[in-house]
User: Fold this.
Amino acid sequence: MQPNNSQDPHTLPPQPNSASVDPALQAYLQQLQQEVSRLTQQTQALQIQNHLLSGQSKLPPEPKLPLPSKFTVNRRLARSFLNQLELVFSANPSRYSTDQIRINTLGALLDGKPLNWLNPYLEKREHYHEMLTNYQIFREAFLLVWGEQDRVVVSENKLRTLIQGKSPSSIYAAEFKNLAADLEWNDAALRTTDSP
Assistant:
């Protein structure tokens, strides 16, 4: 007798007369049928999910933002340099996905004295493993050496002497807010600097 090829491959062949089959074997066959049924349902659910996901629109491509200019030695620009890099990193998360890639990118944008500062760390990586594999630690080390050490004092002095002059009020307000952001002054203290 030829087997029926039109049967569903996930169903088991008909069971023989239950009187002639060992009860343990019968229980095992029932477990197998339940497992096949469960796996079939799971496969169908995954196929539906895959179909739904493939129909969704794809994410737009990441923008190709230019990297900032090389950093030389101007301490006042260190913060802006790092913030520009952060914008590039966040706009291109797949390209700059690891701390190592971010550190290498930052290092490649150093020139002059900052590059000279980095050289010993690169040449003796085994001694500086944590700094060269953790972007936040590397960033903090960079700012410690190349950032404005007295940023709060500089911001306080600039804020105390800030005047609008002939510039538009929007530029004055933006400069005021920028300087105030570096300080931990409350609103009352900020208002006293805003008055003539």
In short: The mean pLDDT is 81.
